[in-house]
Structure to design on (279 residues):
């Protein structure tokens, strides 16, 4: 493994500066203390109200203005007549990982299914030592059906590499919300309530050694708090599974925020070191 100094240097230099955020740009981070409530029990957070400088988690350069429904890819023979009606029944996630993936891809449990190109189930190693949890797909994630792509994804990969890990071998990456909110708006409480059981089941099936939560929204939702990210990071939280198994949770900044505020990379590095040091 690389030395701490070398690893930190590589990661701290990764991703460029805030000036070139471009299509990146997740929502920022500033959050205070709290607990460790499982997703399903988390008090649903509503609209996020960060300062403008702390906004913009999801990138959206050439996105969909106004959150208009996504059009089929160029070259498609005809528009896909896809107008699924959200199902009112609560989601009961599958117990098998592949079945769970298929369930997410076909899910119509909330209105976000109507505008998505792809539901983004997640990707990464199985088994996985860590889970990385973000907020929701942005435009590129929606297009590709993969989490953390683009410059934010590159920075996340650099962060993981700095601690000797990769999404291919060690980490499974998922979001709290599986379908892109139109225009990258904040997920609504009912959307969070509908989708959170999928993440909960992913955690149960993967059973990672620890969870790294990136960004204010994901941290608040996962931990069931409205505390600022500033107060949540720098210490260990715990996710307690239904069977009593406890998983350490570390909160850090979202890579898109780090692209805009590279000075915070040093703190994010501290968060990674904390996650590595946890027993
Ligand atoms: S956001 Fe979640 S609950 Fe809503 S349709 Fe997509 S997968 Fe289903």
């Amino acid at each position: 493994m690389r030395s701490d100094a070398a690893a930190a240097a590589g990661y701290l230099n990764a991703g460029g500066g805030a000036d070139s955020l471009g299509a990146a740009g997740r929502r920022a981070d500033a959050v205070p203390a709290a607990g460790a409530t499982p997703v399903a029990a988390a008090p649903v957070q509503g609209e996020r109200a960060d300062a403008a400088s702390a906004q913009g988690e999801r990138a959206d350069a050439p996105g969909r203005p106004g959150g208009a429904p996504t059009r089929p890819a160029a070259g498609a023979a005809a528009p896909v007549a896809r107008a699924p009606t959200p199902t009112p029944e609560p989601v009961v996630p599958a117990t098998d990982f592949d079945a769970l993936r298929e369930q997410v891809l076909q899910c119509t449990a909330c209105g976000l299914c109507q505008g998505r190109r792809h539901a983004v189930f997640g990707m990464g190693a199985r088994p996985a030592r860590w889970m990385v949890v973000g907020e929701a797909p942005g435009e590129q994630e929606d297009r590709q059906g993969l989490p953390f792509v683009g410059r934010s994804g590159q920075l996340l990969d650099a962060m993981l590499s700095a601690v000797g890990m990769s999404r291919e071998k060690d980490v499974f990456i998922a979001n709290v919300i599986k379908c892109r909110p139109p225009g990258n708006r904040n997920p609504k409480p009912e959307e969070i309530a509908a989708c959170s059981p999928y993440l909960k089941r992913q955690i149960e099936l993967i059973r990672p050694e620890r969870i790294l939560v990136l960004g204010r929204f994901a941290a608040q939702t996962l931990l069931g708090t409205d505390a600022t990210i500033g107060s949540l990071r720098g210490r260990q939280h715990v996710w307690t599974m239904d069977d009593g198994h406890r998983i350490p949770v570390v909160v850090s900044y979202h890579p898109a925020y780090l692209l805009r505020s590279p000075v915070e990379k040093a703190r994010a590095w501290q968060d990674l070191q904390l996650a590595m040091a946890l027993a």
Summary: The chain has nine helices and six strands. Confidence is low (pLDDT under 50) at residues 1-9, 15-82.
